[in-house]
Amino acid sequence: MDRNAFVEVMNEASGMLESGRAPEALARLTEFDNALLSPPDPKDYGWVVSYTFRSAFAAGEFAQALRIAENGPARFPADIPPATLATMYSMGVEAATQLGRPDSAVTMADRCIDIRRGHGDHGEVLMAAMTACTLLGDIERHDLASRYAQLLIAEGDGDHRAYGYYAVCAAIEHGVGGHLVDTLRAGRDWLRSHDNEFAREALQYLDNSPAVANGAVSPTAPPPSSQEPFAPSGQDMFAEPPLGQDMFAEPPLGQDPFTPPPFGQDPFTPPPLSPDAFAPSLPDQAPIGLPPLGPGPLGSVPDGQGPLGAGPNGQGPAGFGPNGQSPLAPEPFGQVPFGDAPVDGNPLAQTPFGGDPLGPPLLGPDSLGLPPLGPPLGEVAQTELLSVSGNGIESVTGPKQPPADQLAGGETADALLEAQRPGIAAAAYRALIDDAIATGKPDPLILGKSVLGMLMALIFDNRVGEAHSVWIDEQGPTYLGVWALENGQTSIHDAMAYNLVAAFLHSLSTGDPNAANHAVDTLMGRCVNWAFGTDAQVVPAMLNTWRRHLYEIHEGEPAPEYRWELTQAEQRWGGPLPESALYWMRPYPWIVDWL
User: Fold this and answer.
1) How many helices (H) and strands (E) does the chain have?
2) Which residues neighbour 235 within 8 Å (Cβ) at sequence distance 6 or greater?
3) pLDDT digit string (tens) for 75-99?
4) What single DSSP character describes residue 318?
5) I need a labelling partner for 394 at 20 to 30 A (CA). Which of 306, 312, 412, 420 fits?
């Protein structure tokens, strides 16, 4: 195999994937593979196979992706690193469920879990089980999902174990979990002692469900107390919420900020496929939908409806569009989702998260009694990286990377977000934060990117109140992630993604509109300046986002003095500004290659 041709193809395919042109990447890799006449180096060919899988998955060619994951390369031997292979198997679960092939989904999940377990990645074992449990439940195979629920109960703790009980409840309710009634009853004391929403929902179902009350009682099961009758009473946990219920109110004090919806609302159901699924019947109605991502370096949002009521001109809230496109749909060909980061420093330095963007810097973690962060980027030892560039694959010196298992966890969480599973993605980001904190020396990049992903997942899951609670929390571990975002411990790309999230949340402020206007001007001004220097084609969408935030703040057209900075930016652009909805960014890959 011609090494130069190999490197050229891999770089081309990588660029195509990053720019949302997965079908082109798949075609290019397939053409290159078909032209090989003799077995290449297995390690080199492993790159070809893994990138072909990723391209097929991203292009929606789930049958091809699953075939690669199930059967391996068709032509030549390939060596694929275990972490990469485990990620392929995890994505294979999604491909299989998309194709309605639950048995293949189980095979993929088991392979992923076996690799993670073999390498001692216990947190990834639990995340793989949680992913499989959710995806199988999505296709109503709660009988198969329950085996992973049992793993979560047996080996997990906290949210993982609580989610296992939560999934057991779903299996019982769907008539395929009768053998698990005793498991649920035996967990009563544990559920009582853990205050998270999965545990609360499972406990309430345990106390109130007729399916549990009518189940056969094992002689070894804990007897119910007089205060815990099995007779159903109270709220039906499987009922849909009443019409007019505010799905976006601030969570009550003491509520876990990662609250899943009750059982009647599937937290992992993808949006309807109808092009007008989220369209309001009246301009001022508040449909429930997902703010979408699209093309461009910051993830354009031409479509989709937002969660907070109508925006200007009958559009969606804060400018979300009306037709309900997936928030993470593939981009149109020829548009670049990521631009190169500018070289003039961190545009987010000393920007307080949730407060005045021009205010004082955040307090350091030590001053708040939080665990100390690991060494900041730029002050860490160097490590050896595998570089696919130049005239071949070479070992080069580069910045020290965060722990490999945590990087893999981050990619898994991003994949869940990409797969339109924002509810479980939020839980995955939180689990990653917990794992990082448990090390006693959490990596700042891991925390920063995890908090950023969590905020986006909560927003896309229509849990904006919870996202705001995480955003302003100054006591919990998420504050460390905020601090990392504010102090240059992530890429410029992720810093801009934070700017967009922060501007969105500022636009929803019910306080001083002058302060909110000032914050949005500052944050969106940075985004637009970055877009001018990175990829000017996205500037119009950025300006539309800015304008819609101001409309949201002022509940209509702002006075000229409130849109002065926006007007200056519009004049700088000098071109047409077609209507578009909010603009978001996909997270940057979990790798330090931008220092």
Assistant:
1) 22, 2
2) 204, 208
3) 888 888 888 888 899 999 999 999 9
4) G
5) 412
Rounded Cα distance between 590 and 258, Å, is: 23
Which tens digits make up the pLDDT trace of 354-368?
334 434 445 555 555
The 3-state DSSP composition of the chain as helix, strand, coil percent (nearest 5) reads: 55, 5, 45
3-state SS, residue 182: helix
| Contact (CB, 8 A) for 400 and 385 | no
Handedness of CA 148, 150, 156, 162 (dihedral sign): positive
DSSP state of 328: B
Indicate the pLDDT class of residue 372, thresholds 50, 70 and 90: low
* Calpha distance 418→404 (Å, rounded): 21
Strand partners for 393: 388
pLDDT digits (tens, 9 = 90+) for 173-213: 999 988 899 999 999 999 999 877 788 889 999 998 888 87
CA-wise closest residue to 586 among 538, 529, 536, 526: 538
Give the residue carrying structure tokens 């969660």: 307
Indicate if the alpha-carbon torsion angle 487, 492, 498, 499 is positive or negative: positive
Taking the C-alpha atoms of residue 572 and residue 569, their distance in angstroms, rounded to an integer, is 5
